[in-house]
UniProtKB/TrEMBL annotation:
Catalytic residues in the record: T190
Keyword Amino-acid biosynthesis: yes
Entry keyword Lipid metabolism: no
Compartmental location: Cytoplasm
Name of the protein in its database record: Arginine biosynthesis bifunctional protein ArgJ
GO molecular function: L-glutamate N-acetyltransferase activity, acting on acetyl-L-ornithine as donor
Residues noted as binding substrate in the record, renumbered to the chain: T153, K179, T190, E276, N402, S407
Listed EC numbers: 2.3.1.35, 2.3.1.1
Site (Involved in the stabilization of negative charge on the oxyanion by the formation of the oxyanion hole): T114, G115
Xref: InterPro entries: Arg_biosynth_ArgJ
Pfam families: ArgJ
Function as written in the Swiss-Prot or TrEMBL entry: Catalyzes two activities which are involved in the cyclic version of arginine biosynthesis: the synthesis of N-acetylglutamate from glutamate and acetyl-CoA as the acetyl donor, and of ornithine by transacetylation between N(2)-acetylornithine and glutamate.
Amino acid sequence: MKIIKGGVTAAKGFEAASTAAGIKYKDRTDMALIYSKKPCKTAGTFTANVVKAAPVKWDRNVVESGVKSQAVIVNSGIANACTGEEGYGYCKETAEAAAKALGIDAEGVLVGSTGVIGMQMPIEKLKNGIVKLAEGKSKDIESGTLAAKAIMTTDTYEKEIAVTIEVGDRTVTIGGMAKGSGMIHPNMCTMLSFITTDAAISKKALQAALSEDVNDTYNMISVDGDTSTNDTVLLLANGMAKNEKIKYDTEDYKKFAEALHVVNEYLAKKIAGDGEGATALFEVQVMGASTKEQAKIIAKSIVCSNLTKTAIAGHDANWGRILCAMGYSGAEFDPEKVDLFFESKAGKIQICENGTAVAYSEEKATEILSQPEVKAVADIKEGSEKATAWGCDLTHGYIDINADYRS
């Protein structure tokens, strides 16, 4: 497997575009298009929030119907959530406008929205934007990058990646882009991720690869404990690599799934590290667990702890907060066996052994915790299973952003 430059346009047959439609923002692009020259098999995973945005309902119906797709229309600024029948109708109008502009079937057009909840979409602006997107689509790498920028809300940078693998005598490419900074919490987190591949693959294998991997990537990140109404991951495969079709539970499937994991984990970590107001990516690894589920529960509890997150922001090795978060996670373990470590590019230090403090340098701990990527390791010494979760520190910047988000 090889990481290459690019994002959603890296795979054969995919094009992208971006435009400024003025949906909410006055000074930036706010709409993106992903287009495939050939119809794609699709897979998707969606928010666990009972309150689901109109695009989530629309996309889930498209994915579950089995109809092939050739385009994804995404807007930022307005989420089209809690908008009733009118909002769902705008999804249909978006699909019809895209079909007309691109000369494709409206039934398979996918949509994505992110931004303020409760506002109705200015549909005429959206339709005008679709025409511009259709006119400006391109297969070049820059078009993919500009599309990744257009879907940002409070994100501070675009998030994209592409990888290649060999399937038989063919090169298969997987590329992706994502956005997310706030309202991020495990259970499909406002997080949007769009992944493209030129792999020839069965729909069963495509959906399985995505569904199985989401639990170890996007569902293991948290910024603020709020599960969005709009969380969506879409995976489109157009088969243009012309490899022998990948089927579920074969060696080629495992190779594809491993590459997809690299893409998903990279995007998930970028989302976590770009949390609103964040100054550091906070990674938590729980090891020595008796089951993978036990490790996941504990890791999530630590990474979601506001007290721990503020300690990371203050570069304070307040390890008691970590042990506390482990204790209320709901997972059973022996606290008197727990070893805790902090590490970063500045080094590694043990701060707790068998549930009690060890002698360590506070100065060294502060140095380690002052880096842009910080890791906490908890060894509960019960078995061989482990899990990793990602989040960020919690600063005053988070309040500054969210106190006036609608203005």
